[in-house]
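Suppose you are handed a protein chain with no further information: no name, no annotation, nothing but its sequence. What can you learn? This example shows the usual starting point.
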Amino acid sequence: MKRTYLSITIMAIVFLTSGLSAFGQELKGVVYDLESSNKLRGILVKNLSTNKQTETDSEGNFKIEAKANDYLRLSGGGYEADTIFIYEQGLRRVYLVRDQETLVINEVYVTRLSDSRLASEIARAKNDGKAAEASQQRGGLRVSPSRLFGRRGKQARSNLDILITERDNRTVDRVFTNQLIRSMTPLTDDEIPLFRDGYRPSLSFIQSASPEDLRIYISESYTQYRKENPK
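A reasonable first move is to predict its three-dimensional structure. Written in structure tokens, the prediction is:
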């Protein structure tokens, strides 16, 4: 009888714990201007999964109930609306772009873009960097010298490389997570970012690897990391 009560108690604890992980999580974030890094007040933040919404305060901060796999929509204040996907808990820093403003691409700015903004910039760079375009009057393709040799076309193709690299890194990082690395190694919170950056696996590996393959990769990479960074 005692064993039965114990089993029921354990099941209840597991149920409550899993319930807390799925519901009632409060996500905190800060919204910035991409160019100036100024914090933005009065930006509407809406959870598209629950329709709950809030606004950023005078310091750009917001709190909203959200969990993994939810989408947040940010809009208002003269900035282009943007959508972010929640795939990991923790403080979110969101950077918005002013309406009608041309984005200056570099590695620092690209890391600040939300996934939806990154996708739109990739599409824009692909279009601006095309050297050929369809000709409706004459049929077939027509090479555009301005796009092929012009500064805008060259810059767009350079931007595209940076943008795609960032997109691929994010795809990898959603699997190669801090939590997974922390569960398998004694790395500190200060060391994990260095480890992730130095030993990030390739996109092709992540797309084909099994969970066991990934665990072996982390274990072997940690051994190499310690050889290169002895305590």
